[in-house]
Design the sequence.
């Protein structure tokens, strides 16, 4: 398998893992994740942030390639009602745009380096993917959508989870 094929497969697997590793009582609104790319385990990291319709924001930070403690640490926050309403209002046009015109991913993603991917869920629960390597034509709207999710991530959530995750030796 070529290295870019392996990296694309890893990125896709990470995107799929976002919806299967975090359980919520309510429906999901969105998820996003970032990773260091393909590095030796001592330097590798990845995190994901998941937004639920009930206002729960789950953050998981992992060091190395592990998916459970002690390599990973989690933090759970609850958005206040006004912030949740603002997030839902910000995501509605993004979901409509993605449903009308899905983001196209590069056929051959770049080799090396990290990536960021996201999913926004429509009212029916369908995942609308913001791939890690969008085409040039779709890059600006992908970045804008991920910036919205970052803006609603509780302050310090990623850093706090990162500080408790244990780097494998």
Sequence:
């Amino acid at each position: 398998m070529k290295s870019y094929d392996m990296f694309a497969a890893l990125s896709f697997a990470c995107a799929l893992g976002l919806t299967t590793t975090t359980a919520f009582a309510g429906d999901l609104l969105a998820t996003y994740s970032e990773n260091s790319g393909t590095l030796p385990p001592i330097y590798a990291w990845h995190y994901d942030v998941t937004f639920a319709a009930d206002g729960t924001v789950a953050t998981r930070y992992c060091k190395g390639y592990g998916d459970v403690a002690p390599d990973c640490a989690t933090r759970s926050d609850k958005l206040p009602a006004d912030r949740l309403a603002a997030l839902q209002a910000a995501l509605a046009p993004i979901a409509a745009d993605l449903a009308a015109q899905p983001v196209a991913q590069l056929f051959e993603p770049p080799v090396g380096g990290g990536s960021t991917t996201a999913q926004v869920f429509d009212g029916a629960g369908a995942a609308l993917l913001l791939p890690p390597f969008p085409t040039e034509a779709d890059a600006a709207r992908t970045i804008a959508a991920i910036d919205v999710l970052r803006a609603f991530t509780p302050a310090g959530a990623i850093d706090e989870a990162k500080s408790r995750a244990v780097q494998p030796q």
